[in-house]
Recover the amino acids of this structure.
């Protein structure tokens, strides 16, 4: 009797404590997302106004006219994630295998500190470097390697560079945690069984640190798909991504349903990536 | 005989007949691989740290450059810094020092209020999730993680749509005009920082020994007293860390602010974005350098605080 009463009381206090968060997230996170979901099927009446007949028109446009941008967003994100992995894995491995605790902390700090400066400022720094009259072109011309300035800014290349720069720490930190937890006695065992370094790495170290790789890849891929600032400041028209398209629908063209359809599509891509991450992670755990 | 048995037998016979001949060529190849690997592993951090730091260094260096160029360094000057403080931030009246300070003040006001609200709500929901059971707990747990993974732009856009719809309806029914401003930005910031606070505070609560709370209750303290005497002081480092994270995220946020601020309410990132889009002036380098310095200081302080907590246990 008493126990049941105590449990009910505990349930009530739990619900009461959770209530502000439930209300806030329900009202200012879930409800707005729901509205966007509904809007994506509505008709655009005038700038900023939507009306009833349900239509698939905006999704048709998303996957029709705008499929170029959609596709570009996905491939830019994939390439950026892969580059982050190729740079980030060895870096995380290097940091995690330092014996001196102080050196390890310093290295981690060196990775994280640039990350704490404002994202806009960090992206802007690349504009200085990549411009026609920018630092990189000045150096290359000074060395006599090129005659005319290279077009670096306002290309997909600049966007990828900016994204890798922006999200590299997201890749390094989870992989660092994985490698740090890895017991290097397994490598000794692999060597004893006749494996060389390459074999030991690909058959022992990599499989056992895959959770970090998956987590890092998801953490990089998702913000890449949703990127707005990087393609906006570095991409020009050639590097336009979905984020820019969405913001345009809510800015200049005020086409709310189209913007909503694009947002829903972006969320779907993110959800697919997340699902793949969870699936892959589970399969690893399963065997 | 089944296939598995065949494999097993051939395997064991292989083991028996195996001789340990050292293949000299293979061995030297392996040594070469190891050497390349070691050098490569040293080369990568050098490259990576250069990649991470060079842009920031270039930005800082050219903020002291005595010409408008970002290609050649022609001498040291503090002109751009002095310009910021004497009224001319760039592009005429669009970017005055007064507006810059105004946007900085907005950033701080939004940051402080949003952090206070989201730390309280975030701590409460963390307690609920880690200390009690209630219907719908699992759903709440999942929803709480969504703002962390969903792209910021969708959050910004959906809030913009939501506020426009609400304010439009309000205008129709009451005739009063309401528009987005500081309040809507704060609401948006709280909505996405609650989750981050909750993640940090829950980690701290999970590390705590529940026996301490039980002991307090056994000694006759009610829930309220147990919370303030035991749970809160022990969870405080986590709450402070969560609040600092929320404050940094709020100060740094551009997208949610951009879509929920309406016309006329700038925060520092929105102001800087406008500046970056419209003009290229050396003053931007100076502002950026000040921002880098400020965030470095903030990190230093928070690390020092955490260090002190760690020492105290």
């Amino acid at each position: 009797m008493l126990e049941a009463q105590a449990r009910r009381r505990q349930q009530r206090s739990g619900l009461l404590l959770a209530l502000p968060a439930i209300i806030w997230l329900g009202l200012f996170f879930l409800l707005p997302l729901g509205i966007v979901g509904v809007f994506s099927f509505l008709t655009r009446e005038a700038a900023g106004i939507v009306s009833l007949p349900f239509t698939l028109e905006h999704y048709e446009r998303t996957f029709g006219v705008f499929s170029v941008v959609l596709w570009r967003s996905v491939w830019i994100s994939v390439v950026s994630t892969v580059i982050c992995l190729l740079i980030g894995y060895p870096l995380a491995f290097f940091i995690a295998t330092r014996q001196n605790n102080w050196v390890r902390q310093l290295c981690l700090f060196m990775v994280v500190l640039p990350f704490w400066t404002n994202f806009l400022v960090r992206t802007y720094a690349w504009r200085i470097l990549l411009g026609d009259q920018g630092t990189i072109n000045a150096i290359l011309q000074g060395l006599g390697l090129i005659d005319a300035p290279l077009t670096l800014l306002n290309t997909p290349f600049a966007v990828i560079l900016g994204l890798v720069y922006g999200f590299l720490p997201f890749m390094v930190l989870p992989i660092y945690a994985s490698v740090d937890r890895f017991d290097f006695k397994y490598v000794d065992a692999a060597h004893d069984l006749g494996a060389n370094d390459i074999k030991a790495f690909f058959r022992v170290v990599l499989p056992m640190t895959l959770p970090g790789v998956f987590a890092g890849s998801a953490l990089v891929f998702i913000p890449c798909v949703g990127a707005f600032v990087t393609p906006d400041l570095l991409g020009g028209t050639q590097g336009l991504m979905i984020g820019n398209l969405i913001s345009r629908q809510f800015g200049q063209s005020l086409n709310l349903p189209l913007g909503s359809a694009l947002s829903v599509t972006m969320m779907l891509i993110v959800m697919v990536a997340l699902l793949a991450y969870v699936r892959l992670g589970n399969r690893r755990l399963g065997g | 005989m089944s296939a598995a048995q065949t494999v097993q037998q051939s395997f064991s016979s292989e083991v028996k007949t195996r001789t340990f001949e050292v293949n000299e060529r293979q061995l030297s190849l392996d040594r070469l691989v190891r050497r390349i690997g070691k050098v490569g592993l040293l080369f990568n951090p050098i490259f990576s740290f250069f990649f991470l730091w060079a842009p920031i260094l270039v930005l800082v260096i050219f903020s002291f450059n005595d010409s408008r160029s970002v290609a050649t360094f022609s001498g040291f000057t503090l002109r751009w810094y002095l310009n910021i403080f004497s009224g001319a931030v760039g592009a005429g009246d669009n970017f005055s020092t007064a507006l810059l300070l105004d946007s900085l003040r907005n950033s701080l006001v939004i940051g402080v209020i949003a952090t206070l609200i989201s730390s309280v709500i975030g701590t409460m929901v963390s307690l609920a999730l880690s200390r009690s059971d209630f219907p719908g707990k699992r759903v709440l747990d999942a929803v709480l993680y969504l703002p962390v993974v969903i792209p910021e732009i969708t959050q910004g856009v959906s809030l913009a749509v939501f506020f426009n719809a609400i304010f439009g309806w309000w205008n129709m029914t009451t005739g009063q005009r309401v528009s987005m401003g500081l309040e809507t930005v704060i609401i948006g910031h709280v909505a996405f920082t609650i989750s981050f606070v909750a993640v940090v505070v829950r980690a701290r609560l999970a590390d705590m020994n529940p026996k301490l709370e039980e002991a307090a209750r056994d000694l006759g303290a009610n829930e309220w007293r147990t919370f303030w005497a035991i749970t809160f002081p022990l969870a405080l480092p986590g709450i402070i860390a969560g609040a600092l994270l929320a404050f940094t995220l709020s100060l740094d946020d551009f997208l949610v602010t951009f879509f929920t601020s309406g016309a006329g309410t700038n925060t520092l990132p929105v102001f800087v974005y406008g500046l970056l889009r419209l003009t290229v002036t050396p003053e931007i380098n100076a502002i950026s350098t000040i921002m880098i310095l400020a965030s470095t200081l903030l990190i230093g302080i928070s690390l020092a605080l955490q260090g002190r907590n760690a020492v105290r246990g």
About this structure: The longest helix of chain B spans residues 24-62. The two ends of chain B are 64 Å apart (CA to CA). The beta strands of chain B are 88-90, 95-96.
